[in-house]
Design a protein that fits this description.
46% of the residues lie in helices and 18% in strands. The protein is an alpha/beta fold. The chain has a 7-stranded mixed beta sheet with strand order 3-2-1-4-5-7-6, sandwiched between helices. α2 crosses α3 and α3 runs parallel beside α4. The longest helix has 25 residues.
């Protein structure tokens, strides 16, 4: 099962105008449970912060979280980096048409080689580390790039099946694993804590996300539609009706997931700090 062809198809629709791109961001915020968790963490981090803030969106993708961060304070400087040149060009093109041009920039970078010493107050990394074999190197680069007192916020699959590596429901249909590009099944709290502390971080906090309510929401709102879209693009026509029916239930499940403490879950939210 492939994400990228679906992303490209959606991109062609929502890139038709800056207004549609903003609608796309809003839809992602509503549908993606990880966005519920991340936006909550970012809002809490932003409390009391001044205007002189530098943020790195490490693995910026569509620019969804860069857009949200830049909306928290119009004076913050946000840098998005990604290894995919087409996504960097796409984001620079979109943000260049908005009133955030100048304070928001995107550039192509490999996180295993990118370090900007003591430059950032916050580094955000969403669904990136599961794609990188040399994760210890990246964590060292993150640590070097943070200002003293800065925070690293990571969202990544956990070792409880977050990469869907243990889900073989569709093998008989000839569909490969849900995420083909992951180099690891996911992190355990102990594993990622040990690696972050080895890079120099302190005060590492981990919590499971995508518990039972969140995992069900993900299956209904993301996995099933993508499975069907990989079979036939005609399902695009039915998507609005499908989400109209399932969205209220998924929103309730997301609300439950954000507010519950989970003994385990398929996602992991991690915060780590660089000492003053």
């Amino acid at each position: 099962m492939k994400y990228d062809p679906i992303k490209r198809s959606l991109g062609k629709v929502f890139n038709a105008s800056p207004w549609l791109r903003k609608v796309f961001y809003r839809l992602l915020d509503l549908l993606l449970l990880r966005a519920w968790h991340i936006r909550g963490e970012l809002k809490r981090w932003a409390l009391g912060k001044g205007s002189q803030v530098e943020v790195l969106d490490a693995g910026s993708g569509f620019g969804q979280y860069t857009w949200f961060i830049s909306s928290l304070n119009p004076q913050w400087r946000v840098t998005g980096v990604d290894v995919k040149e087409e996504q960097i060009a796409d984001c620079n093109n979109f943000f260049g048409k908005t009133n955030r041009a100048g304070l928001v920039t995107f550039k192509k970078e490999d996180l295993t080689q990118y370090a900007n010493p003591s430059a950032y107050d916050l580094i955000l990394s969403v669904d990136v580390m599961e794609h990188i074999e040399e994760d210890r190197v990246v964590f060292e680069n993150f640590y070097a790039s943070l200002k003293p007192g800065g925070m690293l916020l990571i969202s990544t699959p956990s070792d409880k099946g977050g990469s869907d590596a243990h889900d073989h429901d569709h093998k008989e249909e000839g569909i490969s694993g849900f995420i083909d590009e992951h180099v690891r099944d996911g992190y355990s709290p102990a594993d990622i804590t040990e690696k972050l502390e080895g890079a120099g971080f302190s005060g590492v906090e981990t919590k499971y996300t995508y518990g039972k309510p969140g995992h069900l929401s993900w299956k209904l709102s993301m996995k099933f539609p993508i499975v069907v879209l990989n079979v036939s693009k005609l399902f695009f026509v039915l998507l609005p009706l499908y989400y109209l029916l399932v969205w209220p239930f998924c929103a309730w499940l997301n609300w439950k997931d954000v507010r519950c403490q989970h003994a385990e879950g398929t996602g992991l939210m991690v915060k780590a700090y660089k000492n003053n």
